Amino acid sequence: MQKKFNHIDDLLADSYFIEWLCDPTEESDAYWSAQSEINPNLRTLIPFAKNTFNNITVEANEVSNTLVDTALNEMHRTGKVRIFNFKTAAFLKIAAVLLFFSLAAIYTLLPKNEFSTEYGKTMAVDLKDGSEVILNANSKLSLTNNKGKAIDRQVWVSGEAYFNVLSNPKSPFTVHTSRGDIIVLGTIFNVEDTPESFSIYLEEGRIKFVPKPEYQKQSIELDVKKRLIFSSSNERFELQDNNDPNITAWKEKKIVCQNMPLSELSKEIEAYYGVDVVLKQDALADRELDGILENKSLDELLLIVCEALDIKVISSKNSIEFSYY
């Protein structure tokens, strides 16, 4: 029976995947390569899962030997989780705790404070160093639990976020993403990191993007008003001039429509509100809107769209259907 991996939770709960991360072999490399061919979604999920696992650190005072021994004994007794040979005992202990205590334990062991948003919501986060972050809908920002006096200027992002980073040449600011790290001295930029797309837009200042080795070995510097995207078709990073008026409009809860087709607006609605949008008639896809839409609520947005295009809408909890009648 073919395994289904629809989320990073599924990967991190899989013993074969954890074994591959800790002790890769030619056989396991081939296995996960084949899995990615069968399920193209894994091509984006695996980097997310790797990033999460690689950022796990276990300190001596966080996991006692008794706790680890109990986990190992229980795993051997029940036979529910396969024990494999890692190169170091430390890896075995981490894996034992992760696999035994389920996905919830993964996030307990992560040395981070987390901020997250639901669909249809945004959030402003003020960092200790004076920098500011605005999270888009369905996004997450993770910070290190700083136990010392020094401020640790590194964060982890999934989803989309807008950064206004306070300049400190002695302490660069780092944003970790699934495809690499953004190194910042002081600047304003937007980053989108989802399974569907990856992009960085520089509004002010200067930043450097350091891709993970599996994507590209050379770092990339961005100039103002430039946008770096990851092309899924050829799996390369590409620098572009930004022509998208909505690249940062989301933080003001607006959608800028410049002769925007309903098919494109539907994608914006799906991403922000977490619903499926269906166009009942094919001709609806090319109907265009012009103006600025306020993302105050989904119901208000749908009302405006229907009045502007003289169409009907049927909405339920998880889906929306536009129709001429």
In terms of topology, how is this protein built?
Layout: H1 8-12, H2 15-22, H3 26-38, H4 42-54, H5 65-78, H6 89-100, H7 102-109, E1 112-116, E2 123-126, E3 132-135, E4 140-144, E5 154-164, E6 173-177, E7 180-184, E8 188-193, E9 198-204, E10 207-211, E11 220-222, E12 226-231, E13 236-241, E14 254-261, H8 262-273, E15 276-279, E16 288-294, H9 298-309, E17 312-315, E18 319-323
Parallel strand pairs: 5-6, 15-18
Antiparallel strand pairs: 1-4, 2-3, 3-5, 4-5, 5-8, 6-7, 7-10, 8-9, 9-12, 10-11, 12-13, 14-16, 17-18
Helix pairs in contact: 5-6, 6-7
Based on secondary structure, the structural category is alpha+beta
Q: Count helical runs.
A: 9
Q: What's the gyration radius in Å?
A: 22 Å
Shape: globular
Count of domains? 3
Strand content: 25-35%
SSE succession:
HHHHHHHEEEEEEEEEEEEEEHEEHEE
CATH topology of the largest domain: Jelly Rolls
Level-1 CATH class name of the largest domain: Mainly Beta
The largest sheet is:
13 strands, mixed
Taking pLDDT < 50 over at least 5 consecutive residues as the criterion, the unreliable ranges are 57-64, 74-93, 99-111
Give a written overview of the molecule.
This protein is an alpha+beta fold and 325 residues long. It folds into three domains: 8-109, no CATH class; 112-241, Jelly Rolls, CATH 2.60.120; 253-323, Phage tail protein beta-alpha-beta fold (3-Layer(bab) Sandwich). It is 30% helix and 31% strand. The chain has helices at 8-12, 15-22, 26-38, 42-54, 65-78, 89-100, 102-109, 262-273, 298-309; strands at 112-116, 123-126, 132-135, 140-144, 154-164, 173-177, 180-184, 188-193, 198-204, 207-211, 220-222, 226-231, 236-241, 254-261, 276-279, 288-294, 312-315, 319-323. The strands form three sheets. Strands 1, 2, 3, 4, 5, 6, 7, 8, 9, 10, 11, 12 and 13 form a 13-stranded mixed beta sheet that branches. The protein has a three-stranded mixed beta sheet with strand order 15-18-17, with helices on one face. Helix 5 (65-78) packs across helix 6 and helix 6 packs across helix 7 (102-109). The longest helix is centred in the first third of the chain and has 14 residues, at 65-78.
